[in-house]
Amino acid sequence: MNISALLQGIASFAWLGFVGVLVMIFVRTSRNQPAKGLSTLVVVLLVVAVLMTALGAGIVYIQPEERGVVFSAFADGGVRKESLDPGIHWIIPFVEQVRRYPISRQTYTMSATQGEGNIAGDDSIRARTKDGQEIFIESSVIYSIDPNSIIQLHITWQDRYTDELVRPTVRGIIRDVASQFGVEEIVSTQRGALESQVTTLMEEKFKENDLILVDFVLRDIHFSEEYALAVEQKQIAEQQAQQAKFVVESKKQEAEQARQVAQGAADAAVIAAKGEAEARLIQAQAEAQANQLLSQSLTPQLVQYQYVLKLAPGVETIFIPSGNQFILPLPNTTTP
Fold first, then answer.
1. For the domain 106-223, what is the CATH superfamily, name and number?
2. Which of 220-224, 226-230, 332-336 is modeled with the greatest confidence?
3. How far is CA 281 from the centre of its chain?
4. What φ, ψ does residue 321 adopt, rounded to 5°?
5. Sign of CA dihedral 276, 277, 279, 283
Protein backbone atom coordinates (compact mmCIF):
# COMPACT_ATOMS: atom_id res chain seq x y z
CA MET A 1 0.00 0.00 0.00
CA ASN A 2 1.25 3.53 -0.79
CA ILE A 3 2.16 5.15 2.54
CA SER A 4 1.91 8.63 1.12
CA ALA A 5 -1.65 7.95 -0.05
CA LEU A 6 -2.53 6.53 3.38
CA LEU A 7 -1.23 9.62 5.15
CA GLN A 8 -3.02 11.89 2.73
CA GLY A 9 -6.23 9.96 3.35
CA ILE A 10 -5.87 10.43 7.09
CA ALA A 11 -5.16 14.10 6.53
CA SER A 12 -8.32 14.42 4.43
CA PHE A 13 -10.46 12.90 7.21
CA ALA A 14 -8.76 15.19 9.73
CA TRP A 15 -9.54 18.24 7.64
CA LEU A 16 -13.15 17.15 7.25
CA GLY A 17 -13.40 16.64 11.01
CA PHE A 18 -11.80 20.01 11.63
CA VAL A 19 -14.29 21.75 9.37
CA GLY A 20 -17.21 19.85 10.92
CA VAL A 21 -16.22 20.67 14.47
CA LEU A 22 -15.59 24.26 13.51
CA VAL A 23 -19.13 24.50 12.15
CA MET A 24 -20.51 22.98 15.34
CA ILE A 25 -18.60 25.52 17.40
CA PHE A 26 -20.04 28.34 15.29
CA VAL A 27 -23.59 26.98 15.68
CA ARG A 28 -23.30 26.52 19.47
CA THR A 29 -21.79 29.96 19.87
CA SER A 30 -24.64 31.53 17.90
CA ARG A 31 -27.08 29.83 20.31
CA ASN A 32 -25.11 30.93 23.36
CA GLN A 33 -24.23 27.31 24.19
CA PRO A 34 -20.83 26.30 25.67
CA ALA A 35 -18.23 25.00 23.16
CA LYS A 36 -15.19 24.54 25.39
CA GLY A 37 -14.72 20.84 24.66
CA LEU A 38 -15.20 21.37 20.96
CA SER A 39 -12.51 24.04 20.92
CA THR A 40 -9.96 21.55 22.16
CA LEU A 41 -11.11 18.99 19.56
CA VAL A 42 -10.84 21.45 16.72
CA VAL A 43 -7.28 22.29 17.71
CA VAL A 44 -6.34 18.60 17.81
CA LEU A 45 -7.93 17.95 14.42
CA LEU A 46 -6.14 20.95 12.95
CA VAL A 47 -2.78 19.74 14.22
CA VAL A 48 -3.43 16.21 12.92
CA ALA A 49 -4.59 17.49 9.55
CA VAL A 50 -1.58 19.74 9.10
CA LEU A 51 0.83 17.05 10.32
CA MET A 52 -0.66 14.29 8.11
CA THR A 53 -0.76 16.62 5.14
CA ALA A 54 2.91 17.50 5.61
CA LEU A 55 3.90 13.89 6.12
CA GLY A 56 1.84 12.76 3.15
CA ALA A 57 3.43 15.39 0.95
CA GLY A 58 6.94 14.65 2.22
CA ILE A 59 7.03 10.84 2.24
CA VAL A 60 7.63 9.21 -1.14
CA TYR A 61 7.60 5.48 -1.81
CA ILE A 62 9.49 4.33 -4.93
CA GLN A 63 8.50 0.94 -6.39
CA PRO A 64 11.22 -1.66 -7.21
CA GLU A 65 10.75 -1.10 -10.98
CA GLU A 66 11.01 2.70 -10.63
CA ARG A 67 13.50 5.45 -10.01
CA GLY A 68 12.56 8.95 -8.84
CA VAL A 69 13.80 12.35 -10.03
CA VAL A 70 13.41 15.07 -7.41
CA PHE A 71 12.64 18.64 -8.46
CA SER A 72 13.92 20.96 -5.76
CA ALA A 73 13.99 24.71 -5.40
CA PHE A 74 17.13 24.33 -3.28
CA ALA A 75 19.10 22.16 -5.74
CA ASP A 76 21.45 23.52 -8.36
CA GLY A 77 19.62 23.44 -11.68
CA GLY A 78 16.34 22.65 -9.96
CA VAL A 79 17.00 18.88 -9.82
CA ARG A 80 18.74 16.76 -7.20
CA LYS A 81 21.95 15.18 -8.46
CA GLU A 82 20.95 11.71 -7.28
CA SER A 83 17.79 9.82 -8.19
CA LEU A 84 15.64 8.06 -5.60
CA ASP A 85 16.12 4.29 -5.37
CA PRO A 86 13.28 1.89 -4.46
CA GLY A 87 11.99 2.39 -0.92
CA ILE A 88 10.66 5.16 1.33
CA HIS A 89 12.17 8.63 1.03
CA TRP A 90 11.56 12.04 2.56
CA ILE A 91 11.33 15.25 0.56
CA ILE A 92 10.56 18.78 1.65
CA PRO A 93 6.77 19.15 1.42
CA PHE A 94 5.42 21.66 -1.07
CA VAL A 95 8.97 22.65 -2.05
CA GLU A 96 10.17 19.44 -3.70
CA GLN A 97 8.35 17.12 -6.10
CA VAL A 98 9.14 13.67 -7.52
CA ARG A 99 8.71 12.35 -11.05
CA ARG A 100 8.88 8.58 -11.41
CA TYR A 101 10.56 6.84 -14.36
CA PRO A 102 10.19 3.09 -15.12
CA ILE A 103 13.44 1.13 -15.41
CA SER A 104 11.73 -2.13 -16.42
CA ARG A 105 11.90 -3.27 -20.03
CA GLN A 106 9.68 -1.52 -22.55
CA THR A 107 8.74 -2.64 -26.05
CA TYR A 108 8.02 -0.42 -29.00
CA THR A 109 6.51 -2.21 -32.01
CA MET A 110 6.07 -0.91 -35.55
CA SER A 111 3.81 -3.24 -37.51
CA ALA A 112 1.51 -3.27 -40.49
CA THR A 113 -1.00 -5.48 -38.69
CA GLN A 114 -3.87 -3.71 -36.98
CA GLY A 115 -3.61 -3.91 -33.20
CA GLU A 116 0.01 -5.14 -33.01
CA GLY A 117 1.90 -1.84 -33.09
CA ASN A 118 2.06 1.10 -30.72
CA ILE A 119 0.39 3.24 -33.38
CA ALA A 120 -2.89 2.17 -34.99
CA GLY A 121 -2.83 1.27 -38.66
CA ASP A 122 0.11 0.45 -40.88
CA ASP A 123 3.20 1.62 -39.01
CA SER A 124 5.77 -0.51 -40.86
CA ILE A 125 9.00 1.13 -41.99
CA ARG A 126 9.21 1.86 -45.71
CA ALA A 127 12.77 1.72 -47.06
CA ARG A 128 14.66 1.54 -50.35
CA THR A 129 17.31 -1.06 -51.11
CA LYS A 130 20.52 -0.23 -52.98
CA ASP A 131 18.95 -1.55 -56.20
CA GLY A 132 15.96 0.78 -55.84
CA GLN A 133 13.36 -1.73 -54.64
CA GLU A 134 10.80 -0.62 -52.07
CA ILE A 135 10.45 -2.82 -48.99
CA PHE A 136 8.35 -2.62 -45.82
CA ILE A 137 9.93 -3.74 -42.54
CA GLU A 138 8.11 -4.60 -39.32
CA SER A 139 10.16 -4.55 -36.13
CA SER A 140 10.07 -4.42 -32.35
CA VAL A 141 12.57 -2.71 -30.05
CA ILE A 142 13.00 -3.87 -26.46
CA TYR A 143 14.81 -1.33 -24.31
CA SER A 144 15.04 0.17 -20.83
CA ILE A 145 16.21 3.35 -19.14
CA ASP A 146 19.73 3.29 -17.77
CA PRO A 147 19.18 3.50 -13.97
CA ASN A 148 22.49 5.32 -13.56
CA SER A 149 21.59 8.06 -16.06
CA ILE A 150 18.00 8.91 -15.19
CA ILE A 151 18.82 12.49 -14.17
CA GLN A 152 20.47 13.21 -17.52
CA LEU A 153 17.63 11.49 -19.40
CA HIS A 154 15.13 13.69 -17.59
CA ILE A 155 17.09 16.84 -18.36
CA THR A 156 17.40 15.94 -22.04
CA TRP A 157 14.14 14.18 -22.90
CA GLN A 158 11.78 14.18 -19.87
CA ASP A 159 8.97 11.75 -20.75
CA ARG A 160 9.28 12.34 -24.51
CA TYR A 161 12.00 9.73 -25.09
CA THR A 162 9.64 7.14 -26.60
CA ASP A 163 8.10 9.30 -29.31
CA GLU A 164 11.01 11.64 -29.94
CA LEU A 165 14.00 9.34 -29.48
CA VAL A 166 13.18 5.63 -29.76
CA ARG A 167 10.76 5.76 -32.68
CA PRO A 168 12.64 8.14 -35.04
CA THR A 169 16.02 6.59 -34.21
CA VAL A 170 14.88 3.07 -35.03
CA ARG A 171 13.17 4.06 -38.27
CA GLY A 172 16.12 6.12 -39.45
CA ILE A 173 18.72 3.43 -38.73
CA ILE A 174 16.67 0.73 -40.45
CA ARG A 175 16.29 2.86 -43.58
CA ASP A 176 20.02 3.65 -43.67
CA VAL A 177 21.10 0.03 -43.24
CA ALA A 178 18.54 -1.33 -45.73
CA SER A 179 19.93 1.00 -48.41
CA GLN A 180 23.26 -0.86 -48.19
CA PHE A 181 21.80 -4.20 -49.32
CA GLY A 182 20.12 -5.45 -52.45
CA VAL A 183 16.60 -6.79 -52.20
CA GLU A 184 17.71 -10.34 -53.03
CA GLU A 185 20.31 -10.18 -50.26
CA ILE A 186 17.77 -9.00 -47.70
CA VAL A 187 15.36 -11.75 -48.68
CA SER A 188 17.92 -14.55 -48.53
CA THR A 189 21.51 -14.54 -47.34
CA GLN A 190 22.00 -11.10 -45.77
CA ARG A 191 18.94 -10.75 -43.55
CA GLY A 192 20.98 -11.66 -40.49
CA ALA A 193 23.69 -9.16 -41.46
CA LEU A 194 21.07 -6.40 -41.78
CA GLU A 195 19.64 -7.23 -38.37
CA SER A 196 23.12 -7.30 -36.83
CA GLN A 197 24.11 -3.91 -38.25
CA VAL A 198 20.85 -2.32 -37.11
CA THR A 199 21.36 -3.72 -33.60
CA THR A 200 24.92 -2.40 -33.36
CA LEU A 201 23.99 1.12 -34.49
CA MET A 202 20.97 1.24 -32.20
CA GLU A 203 23.03 0.14 -29.19
CA GLU A 204 25.42 3.04 -29.77
CA LYS A 205 22.66 5.59 -30.32
CA PHE A 206 20.65 4.48 -27.30
CA LYS A 207 23.72 4.52 -25.07
CA GLU A 208 24.44 8.12 -26.11
CA ASN A 209 20.92 9.03 -24.95
CA ASP A 210 20.91 7.14 -21.62
CA LEU A 211 18.91 4.13 -22.83
CA ILE A 212 19.84 0.45 -22.93
CA LEU A 213 18.96 -1.64 -25.98
CA VAL A 214 17.90 -5.10 -24.84
CA ASP A 215 16.95 -6.59 -28.20
CA PHE A 216 15.99 -5.68 -31.73
CA VAL A 217 13.50 -8.02 -33.42
CA LEU A 218 13.12 -7.97 -37.20
CA ARG A 219 9.54 -9.21 -37.33
CA ASP A 220 8.82 -9.29 -41.06
CA ILE A 221 9.88 -7.94 -44.45
CA HIS A 222 7.37 -7.58 -47.28
CA PHE A 223 7.48 -5.92 -50.66
CA SER A 224 5.47 -3.86 -53.08
CA GLU A 225 2.77 -5.65 -55.08
CA GLU A 226 4.80 -5.32 -58.30
CA TYR A 227 7.91 -6.91 -56.83
CA ALA A 228 5.93 -9.61 -55.04
CA LEU A 229 4.32 -10.52 -58.40
CA ALA A 230 7.74 -10.61 -60.07
CA VAL A 231 9.10 -12.88 -57.31
CA GLU A 232 6.11 -15.18 -57.69
CA GLN A 233 6.61 -15.40 -61.47
CA LYS A 234 10.29 -16.12 -60.96
CA GLN A 235 9.51 -18.91 -58.53
CA ILE A 236 7.03 -20.40 -60.99
CA ALA A 237 9.64 -20.27 -63.78
CA GLU A 238 12.22 -21.90 -61.52
CA GLN A 239 9.77 -24.66 -60.63
CA GLN A 240 9.00 -25.25 -64.30
CA ALA A 241 12.70 -25.36 -65.14
CA GLN A 242 13.24 -27.81 -62.30
CA GLN A 243 10.39 -29.95 -63.60
CA ALA A 244 11.84 -29.91 -67.14
CA LYS A 245 15.23 -30.88 -65.75
CA PHE A 246 13.60 -33.76 -63.91
CA VAL A 247 11.90 -34.94 -67.12
CA VAL A 248 15.22 -34.82 -69.00
CA GLU A 249 16.92 -36.81 -66.27
CA SER A 250 14.10 -39.34 -66.34
CA LYS A 251 14.46 -39.75 -70.11
CA LYS A 252 18.20 -40.18 -69.74
CA GLN A 253 17.66 -42.87 -67.15
CA GLU A 254 15.13 -44.64 -69.37
CA ALA A 255 17.54 -44.50 -72.32
CA GLU A 256 20.34 -45.84 -70.17
CA GLN A 257 18.14 -48.66 -68.96
CA ALA A 258 17.17 -49.52 -72.58
CA ARG A 259 20.83 -49.43 -73.60
CA GLN A 260 21.76 -51.74 -70.76
CA VAL A 261 18.94 -54.13 -71.70
CA ALA A 262 20.06 -54.16 -75.34
CA GLN A 263 23.66 -54.63 -74.29
CA GLY A 264 22.62 -57.50 -72.09
CA ALA A 265 20.67 -59.13 -74.93
CA ALA A 266 23.62 -58.70 -77.28
CA ASP A 267 26.00 -60.15 -74.74
CA ALA A 268 23.64 -63.06 -74.20
CA ALA A 269 23.45 -63.72 -77.96
CA VAL A 270 27.23 -63.67 -78.25
CA ILE A 271 27.57 -66.03 -75.35
CA ALA A 272 24.93 -68.34 -76.86
CA ALA A 273 26.67 -68.29 -80.26
CA LYS A 274 30.00 -69.03 -78.66
CA GLY A 275 28.46 -71.86 -76.72
CA GLU A 276 26.84 -73.31 -79.85
CA ALA A 277 30.10 -73.04 -81.86
CA GLU A 278 32.05 -74.69 -79.09
CA ALA A 279 29.47 -77.45 -78.91
CA ARG A 280 29.73 -78.06 -82.66
CA LEU A 281 33.51 -78.08 -82.46
CA ILE A 282 33.44 -80.62 -79.68
CA GLN A 283 30.98 -82.74 -81.64
CA ALA A 284 33.12 -82.57 -84.78
CA GLN A 285 36.22 -83.47 -82.81
CA ALA A 286 34.43 -86.42 -81.27
CA GLU A 287 33.21 -87.64 -84.67
CA ALA A 288 36.71 -87.29 -86.12
CA GLN A 289 38.18 -89.17 -83.25
CA ALA A 290 35.54 -91.89 -83.59
CA ASN A 291 36.20 -92.20 -87.31
CA GLN A 292 39.92 -92.42 -86.62
CA LEU A 293 39.40 -95.19 -84.12
CA LEU A 294 37.09 -96.97 -86.57
CA SER A 295 39.59 -96.75 -89.40
CA GLN A 296 42.31 -98.14 -87.20
CA SER A 297 40.15 -101.12 -86.29
CA LEU A 298 39.42 -102.16 -89.96
CA THR A 299 41.44 -105.08 -91.53
CA PRO A 300 41.23 -106.56 -95.08
CA GLN A 301 39.69 -109.74 -93.75
CA LEU A 302 37.05 -107.76 -91.77
CA VAL A 303 36.17 -105.71 -94.81
CA GLN A 304 35.80 -108.83 -96.94
CA TYR A 305 33.70 -110.42 -94.28
CA GLN A 306 31.38 -107.43 -94.07
CA TYR A 307 31.20 -107.34 -97.82
CA VAL A 308 30.09 -110.94 -97.96
CA LEU A 309 27.47 -110.28 -95.28
CA LYS A 310 26.03 -107.51 -97.33
CA LEU A 311 25.80 -109.83 -100.33
CA ALA A 312 24.06 -112.62 -98.47
CA PRO A 313 22.82 -111.77 -95.02
CA GLY A 314 22.88 -114.71 -92.66
CA VAL A 315 25.47 -116.66 -94.66
CA GLU A 316 27.80 -118.61 -92.50
CA THR A 317 30.07 -120.53 -94.96
CA ILE A 318 31.14 -119.96 -98.56
CA PHE A 319 32.85 -122.74 -100.53
CA ILE A 320 35.09 -121.72 -103.28
CA PRO A 321 36.34 -124.37 -105.77
CA SER A 322 40.01 -125.04 -105.53
CA GLY A 323 42.01 -123.21 -108.14
CA ASN A 324 39.05 -121.09 -109.33
CA GLN A 325 38.83 -117.35 -109.15
CA PHE A 326 36.15 -115.75 -107.01
CA ILE A 327 33.11 -114.87 -109.01
CA LEU A 328 32.92 -111.28 -107.71
CA PRO A 329 35.77 -108.90 -107.12
CA LEU A 330 36.47 -108.12 -103.50
CA PRO A 331 36.77 -104.48 -102.47
CA ASN A 332 40.24 -102.98 -102.30
CA THR A 333 41.23 -102.80 -98.66
CA THR A 334 44.65 -101.32 -99.17
CA THR A 335 45.32 -97.73 -98.58
CA PRO A 336 46.41 -95.85 -101.68
1. Band 7 domain (3.30.479.30)
2. 220-224
3. 76
4. -60, 145
5. positive
